[in-house]
Amino acid sequence: MSKHFQSVKGMNDCLPSETPVWQYLESCLRAVTEMYGYAEIRMPMVEKTELFCRSIGEVTDIVEKEMYTFIDKGEESLTLRPEGTASCVRAGIQNGLIYNQQQRLWYMGPMFRRERPQKGRYRQFYQFGVETFGINGPDIDVEVIALSARLWKMIGLTNVELQINSLGSNVAREAYKVKLVEYFNQHLDDLDEDSKRRLVSNPLRILDSKNPAMKGVINDAPKLLEHLDDESQAHFDSLCEKLNALDIKYVINSKLVRGLDYYNRTVFEWVTTELGSQGTICAGGRYDGLVEQLGGQSTPGFGFAMGLERIILLLKQQSGLEDKLSTKIDVYLCTLGDKAENAGMILAEKLRSEYPKLRLQLHCGGGNFKKQLKRADKSEAEIALIIGEDEVDKNQITVKYLREKKEQISVALVDIKPILLDLI
Ligand code: ATP
Ligand code: MG
Q1: Which of 137, 205, 229, 387 is the least crowded, having the fewest Cβ atoms under 10 Å away?
Q2: Under a CB-based contact definition with an 8 Å cutoff, are residues 29 and 151 in contact?
Q3: Counting ligands in written order, which one lies closest to the CA of residue 119?
Q4: Listed residue (364, 361, 355, 272) closest to 318, CA to CA
Q5: What residues contact residue 369 under an 8 Å CB cut-off, 6+ apart?
């Protein structure tokens, strides 16, 4: 027997039974971006490895352990994108979208990280992201957060909490790092191996540790928010005030630093308690240095990325979702006999042209009446339309109701309209 292939670990198929909820979420995402005037950008899935090292940071989980990197034909190191912001900034600079202008962009697509697969954590996963350029904020910070809040409302997610923090300016953060290192050096015994290493290479990352044993020592560490420069403090105060004005509830989480190095000032996450430790469904913040770091003119940026699988898991727990996802077909068209087969095929195309909203499936593969009706029943269509030789000759069609009422009637083809309109 030949080999039975399995998909790559952590990379999943999205089966026909799953696609309706994905399509529903995607349509809501598109709708919300239109409401705010954001334009879609599509980037390649592979980039030069250096792009991610330079932007995300060498000493981060993503770059240290999670990237799918390969040498292309012995020449160049390439990487499957682990996130979208770096590519978006690269594309923006390369195509002149960023210099001296404002941009409000969004993207959606697969990302790749070689992590341990578990519920809500995969090796290929989908992100929807928003990136804005050329606006200093905090007005745009709040707009982007409001866009995400509106999406939760639209899709009926209620148990999500907005957490915010400020990372301050680079200068203030360097001063804070000195204090942080001093503190952790006094508590070396409480640090795990990763954190001891990061104490030298990237001490802020220790605050982002997922190790429960580190919780205590992190909780008692000096707070970033207490070491902000004046301008970042004013930015943060204004952000809070604007969120209040829009009645968007938040909690301040002074340990929120995010897992990527390019952020400054505002950072935020939307977190749910319903997915265990994979509770962050949306995360982002301000990255004013990134465009320059990647070779463009200094331009402020603000954005976020959402993990769509996690949102899908939450959606599936919702009651009443089925009603929003109706993908059932309306009509199953059966044909009996050779003459009727072509007539049925032509009629199916004609009806699709006349009623673009009608979901019509034409029986293919032959078979007797009983077999075709069985298929019609299984298709969950409301009605079966049946054409035999007799119907072809008389320009008629038989309508068989398959659900509540089971009656069968014969109508002239020209009189089919009200029956079909009733279904759509
Ligand atoms: P986490 O702390 O869960 O590892 P992260 O900080 O690495 O997340 P980001 O890089 O900020 O995540 O990505 C934004 C969002 O993308 C996350 O909040 C999450 O919803 C989703 N996400 C990240 N990694 C994965 C993954 N491996 N599988 C599924 N979703 C993911
Ligand atoms: Mg991660």
Answers
A1: 229
A2: yes
A3: 1
A4: 272
A5: 334, 336, 386
Q: Is 337 exposed, middle or buried (0-12, 13-18, 19+ CB in 10 A)?
A: middle
What is the spatial distance between Cα 215 and Cα 203, in angstroms, rounded to a whole number? Answer: 15
Tens digits of residue pLDDT in 16-60: 999 999 999 999 999 999 999 999 999 999 999 999 999 998 888
Residue nearest ligand 1's atom 3 by CA: 278
Is the pLDDT at 420 greater than 70, yes or no? yes
Ligand 1 environment, Cβ below 6 A:
83, 113, 115, 120-122, 125, 127, 259, 278, 280-281, 283, 305, 307, 309-310
Residue type (1 letter), 16:
P
Model pLDDT for residues 352-368, shown as the tens digit of each residue = 999 999 999 999 999 99
Q: What is the pTM of this model?
A: 0.91
Q: What is the dihedral of CA 376, 377, 383, 386, to 10 degrees?
A: 40
Ligand positioned closest to the Cα atom of 305: 1
**Longest Cα–Cα distance in the chain:** 94
Angle between helices 308-316 and 19-36 (to 10 degrees): 120
- Per-residue pLDDT tens for 293-303? 999 999 999 99
Q: How far is the CA of 199 from the centre of ligand 1 (A)?
A: 23
Nearest residue by C-alpha to atom 17 in ligand 1:
307
Per the structure block, which two tokens stand in for 146?
Answer: 């409001």
pLDDT of amino acid 298: 94
Percent helix, strand and coil across the chain, each rounded to 5? 40, 20, 35
Angle in degrees, CA 398, 404, 408, rounded to 5? 20
Closest atom of ligand 1 relative to the 82 alpha carbon = 10
The pLDDT score that the predictor gives to residue 318 is 84
Q: Whole-angstrom Cα distance, residue 347 to residue 71?
A: 54
Tell me how far apart the alpha carbons of residues 266 and 245 are, in angstroms, rounded to a whole number. 18
How buried is 172 (Cβ within 10 angstroms: 0-12 exposed, 13-18 middle, 19+ buried)?
Answer: buried
Return the SS3 of 4: coil
Q: Within a 10 A sphere around the Cβ of 402, how many other Cβ atoms?
A: 18
CA atoms of 358 and 356, how far apart (whole Å): 6
